[in-house]
Amino acid sequence: MAALPHSSRTHFEMASFTEEPLLQGLVDHVLPYADSLGMNEQELPNLYNMLRYGNITLVSDYNPRVASVLDQMRYVFRHLRDAPHHNNHSGSGGRSLTRLHLHTLAFQAIMVQRGVWTNTLAAATKAALTANRHVCGNKQISVEHARMLMDDGFTLSEEAGAGRVLFDTQRPVACWTEDAGTVEVCIAPVLVCTTVRHTAGGGDNISAAGLILQV
């Protein structure tokens, strides 16, 4: 990753790293060379805790609230985007994180630096559809074998006074900008498959489905 030219964007897909030395090693030696990160609802709080407190979390929510997830994503995104990166032995500098994709059972969340990544709405949509198709093992999505876990809306943050977004049934993927319009965020609800056929490789397929529309 360090040897690649900056014209080639890099994506790192997280996994269930539960040992603090290993996760700290990733933070120190791998993440500084990633333009994009993908992770699930267990991996995000671990990375958040490591960056903010220097440890990992022992408990995570299998179905987290959108508001808490967005707050954690904002911290991770800004920390890795704005952190100073030192040159490695070859003289090539590190990268600033400009894309973060969280895939959960109930929804997909993608946060990007505008002007660097495009098609965020389409990427979140495709990731959500791929989640159903992969787990059900079927290219066709059957509403008879799917259900929604999300409510009809969500709060943008756990901070007091945060706004609330209501889903539009005609346009269910919600997108907005933050940080004076420099950051775009999209949330796509997932039609959760109720006839499970595949689970292994789900995160890899979902992240790749979203990424392919943005590179």
Automatic annotation (TrEMBL):
**Keyword vocabulary terms for this entry:** Cytoplasm, Glycolysis, Kinase, Magnesium, Metal-binding, Transferase
What are the record's GO terms for cellular component? endoplasmic reticulum
Q: List the Pfam families.
A: ADP_PFK_GK
Say yes or no: keyword Transferase present.
yes
Source domain of life is Eukaryota
An example Gene Ontology biological process: glycolytic process
Q: Which ranges of the sequence are coiled-coil?
A: none
Official protein name in the record: ADP-dependent glucokinase
Upper lineage ranks? Eukaryota, Metazoa, Ecdysozoa, Arthropoda, Crustacea
